[in-house]
Amino acid sequence: MFGMAPFLIDSAPYESTMGLVYKIFYFHFPSAMTMLVSALTCGVASAIFLFSRRPGADRVAVAAAELSVVFGLLVFVTGPLWARKAWGTWWIWDPRITSTFIMWMVFNAYLLLRRFGGAGSEVLAAAVGFFGMALVPFVYWSVNLWRTIHPLTSVVPTLPVNMGIPLYFCWTAFTILFVALMLIRVRLEHARTRLEEAYLAVDD
Amino acid sequence: MLLMTRTVRRVVLAALVVSALFVADVAPAAQGAQPPTAPASEPPITQAPLPPAAQDGFVPVRPGELEQEQLPAAPLVFVAYSVVWLALVGYVFVLWRRITIVERELKDVSAKLSARRP
Q1: What is the ipTM score, two decimals?
Q2: Which chain B residues have any C-beta within 8 angstroms of a chain A C-beta?
Q3: Nearest Cα to Cα of residue A27 among A174, A149, A144
């Protein structure tokens, strides 16, 4: 699908006010949506872990938090490149960008907590992950609540067919990639848990 | 004497930093305050005002409608797509490396454990 995407993006027309640079949208938007889905996944898994202490939920939460950071990084690379041409600036502290940045920092904090927090940090990290999820609706609807220069949420549903097909194709590709990366990342976390158990058994 | 020299040096350094900050802050403002070289009624020579970027809905361009672009968009689009591809490939590679290392270590520890067992 990622091999096919450039051909579809190439065949899509330019946007009337932005021209060629608008085509960054085809990777920027799916990256942002995947980041939001990762954040939701992390939040739900964190909530399950907080209430039931299931280790599986914790593994899913760690994996989703890391993917939130990775896809967030893609958003923060592609966004300024698009903004430089469309708005004449690399960065602007508009509500959508600022709230996304805060959410991204929350998931960075989650990962730092897990890395350096020591024993018991998974519970605190789960609370941070849940807080990160609470920011998702705020990030999504911020453009409609405070009108600045960021496009509205109504842009995607009202796209013409020749612009919509490449976008939905890329979005599907990113979603499949997210699922695949989640499975691999959860497998890594599972292997780490087994390794820790094995080391404990050796020590005993 | 040594203390005096050190204090003077600190004061001079602080003055230099403050004046550098002041110059950096004032220079753009002073540039903006300069009178325009062309009369206000004339259009700017270097760049025509761009229409604002779409916010309410994206509309495909009509053939021949797009004018010559001021800032070339192609390098920005190229960099954006390259970074996404490289970052994703890099992340998959890092994940693969991490899994390989952990699973190898797990294998070694499991072998140690089974060797210990009677």
Answers
A1: 0.87
A2: 50-62, 65-66, 69, 71, 73-74, 76-77, 79-81, 83-85, 87-88, 91-92, 95, 98-99, 102-103, 105-106, 109-110, 112-113, 116
A3: A174
**Contact (Cβ atoms closer than 8 angstroms) between residue A124 and residue A117:** yes
Residue B62 belongs to some domain of the structure: no
Examine residue B88 and state whether it is found in any structural domain, yes or no.
yes
* pLDDT tens digits for range A155-181: 888 888 988 999 999 999 999 999 999
Query: Which residue is listed with tokens 């960021």?
Result: A150
**Angle (CA) A143 A147 A148, round 5°:** 95
Q: For residue A148, what is the DSSP state?
A: S
Residue B102: domain span: 1-31+71-118
pTM of the model: 0.77
Q: A with B: how many residue pairs have Cβ under 8 Å apart? A: 139
Handedness of CA B65, B71, B72, B73 (dihedral sign): negative
Question: Beta-carbon neighbour count of residue A113 at 10 Å?
Answer: 19
Determine the Cα–Cα distance for residues A139 and B23; give it in Å rounded to an integer: 38
Question: In chain B, how many domains are there?
Answer: 1
Q: Is residue B80 part of a domain?
A: yes
Classify residue B54: in a domain, yes or no. Answer: no
Residue numbers in B near A94 (CB within 8 A): none
